[in-house]
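(Fold this chain)
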Amino acid sequence: MATTRKEWSFKTSHIIASHALVFILRCANPLKFIWARVTRQNPYFFFRDIIPPETLKMNSAIQLLVIEDDPAIARALREGLEREGYRVTWKNNGADGITFARTQNPQLILLDVRLPDGSGFEVCRALRSHGLRQPILMLTVEREEIDKVLGLEMGADDYLTKPYSLRELLARVRALLRRAYGEFSAAAADILYVGDAQIDLTRVQVQRGNQVLDLTPTEFRLLVFLARHKGQALSRAQILQAVWGYDAELAVCRRDM
């Protein structure tokens, strides 16, 4: 039986609607950032979740630095991160970002690759050359593998390509904090004492008298773990699991490779 004009019109409309829906879903992330540029609003406004009060309290001890030259994107990042409870500072160029990082020692840095006073790769290398060891998450529109490799070689800890979702960004931030500071990123602020040394979990800093000790994130995690288990006999497997995040068998495999 021949298809009537009415049936053909219905099928055509259905196909067009399906293709339109697929297009909208695929373009959701780019459209959010375009909307942010046009309206100067947070593109994550309609994608918010309810944050538990305990999470806000824990995150309030963590200082993040955003180095991004685009005001709309920076505003969106800042609002999204602050809504999670993090304390966020924004700098729109590499020089100011380096100065803030050296003086304030934030726990994590979100660094854009394209900056008005140079490349984010150079800023990343400068941060590392100044002895700053906190995690660096690089943000870029570049999708080429060589750009990601270059960022990691310069000292970045992770790489995120624009446009990205707020959930993915937050997940990467939490993962980097856990990897760098261990229990610090999931525990309330506290101070531990070991002899004449004071371990400030809020500032991720160890002080002996008036001297601040220069420790890597791994050394800091190890010291915190040992301080929390004073007087206890700890096995190699327990230390590896708590500080490095892998068991003894995997450590043996890595050593043999």
